[in-house]
Amino acid sequence: MLEHVTAIRYVTPLREGGSMPGVVEGNDLGTYVVKFRGAGQGLKVLVAEVVVGELARRLDLPVPRMVTIELPRAIARYEADEEVQDLLNASPGTNLGVDLLPGSLGYDGSRPPAPELASRILWLDAFTANVDRTWSNPNLLTWHRQTWLIDHGAALYFHHSWPSRAPDPQRFVRQPFMADEHVLRAIATDLAGAHAALAPRITTDLVADVLDLVPDEWLETTDHLPDARSVRAAYADHLLARVETPQVWLPGGAR
Ligand SMILES: Nc1ncnc2c1ncn2[C@@H]1O[C@H](COP(=O)(O)OP(=O)(O)OP(=O)(O)O)[C@@H](O)[C@H]1O
Ligand SMILES: [Mg+2]
Fold first, then answer.
1. Residues 113 and 78 placed together within one structural domain of the fold
2. Residue 255 falls within a domain, yes or no?
C-alpha cells in the first residue's frame, strides 16, 4: 500500500490543471498536490496515476512520492471558493497525493534531459499509451536540475472501455503510439536501447507489486471483473502482453 496521510488544510487550487488539483497540507507535515476522486474524470485516472507513476519509479525514472490522502469532510467547510468547495464535497475519503516539488518549473526544453533519460521516458509513455506528454501539455517538471515526470492519468486508456466490453489485452497490444507529438521526440534517440534495458524489468512480480499499491476502493468492478482481484489481473494481463510486443507500439520498432 501507499503511505496514507490525512489532509489538515486546503492551501490553494492549481488552476492550470484540467482537473483542478489542489495543494494540501498533510498531518505528516508534507505538502501534496492532490488529485481529487470527485474531479469528474473519475477514479480510473487515479489508478493510471499510481500504476504508471509507480512503474516509472521502479524503472528509476524521477517521479515525486505518492501517497493516499484522506480528506475529512470538515475541510470543505472553511473553503470560500464555491468551485473548490464543490470539488472537496465530492471527494470525501481516499484521494491521491503527489509530493509537491517546491519551486519546480514547467518543462520548456531549456534544460533537456540526457538522451538516455529522454528515451526511457518516451519508452514508458509508448508502453503505457500515455498521450499526455506533448509540447502543449508536457507534464514534466524541472526541479533540482532534473526532469521529473507527473500526471499519468491519461495513460492506460483501455480501462475506459471496461464497463461496456470484456477486457481484451490483445487490443492494447495492437494499439500504436503516436510519438511525433511527444515533447521529447527529438532527443529520445535510443528507443531500442531503452526497450532493451527496461522491458526485461517489467516482470510479473514487478507489475503485481505496483498493482498492489492501488487502493481496492479505486478499482471499479464490472460484469466481467467482479472483484478487485480480477481488475488487478486485467491490468497485469494488458501490461505484460504489451511489453512482449514492441513491434507495434515502439516508435521505430525494437531493432
Ligand atoms: N508534484 C508537483 N509539484 C509541483 N507542481 C505540480 C506537481 N504536480 C502538478 N503540479 C503543477 O500543477 C499542474 C497540474 O497538474 P497535473 O498536470 O498533474 O494536473 P491535471 O489536472 O491532470 O492536468 P492536465 O490534465 O490539465 O494536464 C502541473 O502542470 C504543474 O504545474
Ligand atoms: Mg497535466
1. no
2. no
Domain count of the chain? 2
Q: Which domain holds residue 130?
A: 105-249
Which pLDDT does position 77 carry in this prediction? 87
Kindly state whether residues 95 and 169 are assigned to the same domain. no
Same domain, 111 and 83: no
* Whether pLDDT at 253 is above 70: no
Do residues 182 and 224 both lie within one domain? yes
Q: How confident is the model at residue 10 (pLDDT cuts 50, 70, 90)?
A: very high
- With CA atoms as reference, report the closest residue to 112 among 73, 145, 71: 145
Q: Whose CA is nearest to atom 7 of ligand 1?
A: 100
Q: In the predicted model, what is the mean pLDDT of residues 161-169?
A: 95
Q: Which of 2, 179, 17, 197 is nearest to 95 (CA)?
A: 2
Q: Are residues 74 and 124 in the same domain?
A: no
pLDDT above 70 as % of the chain: 99
169 and 214 part of one domain = yes
Probe target for ligand 1 pocket from 20, 100, 130, 141, with the most ligand atoms within 8 Å of CB: 141
| Nearest CA-CA partner of 33 in 24, 41, 44 | 24
Which whole number is the average pLDDT over 165-182?
Answer: 96
Same domain, 47 and 158: no
Percent of the chain past pLDDT 90, that is, above it, reads: 94
Pick from 11, 12, 15, 19 the residue to mutate for probing ligand 1's pocket: most ligand atoms within 8 Å of its CB. Answer: 19
Which residue, judged by its Cα, is nearest atom 13 of ligand 1?
Answer: 17
Q: Which residues does a 6 A CB cutoff place in the pocket of ligand 1?
A: 14, 16-19, 21, 33, 64, 98-101, 104, 106, 132, 137, 139, 141, 150-151, 153
What pLDDT sits at residue 208?
98
- For residues 134 and 122, the answer to whether their CB atoms sit within 8 Å is no
What is the average pLDDT value for the chain, to the nearest integer? 96
Q: Please identify, among 49, 82, 99, the residue that sits at the C-terminal boundary of a domain.
A: 99
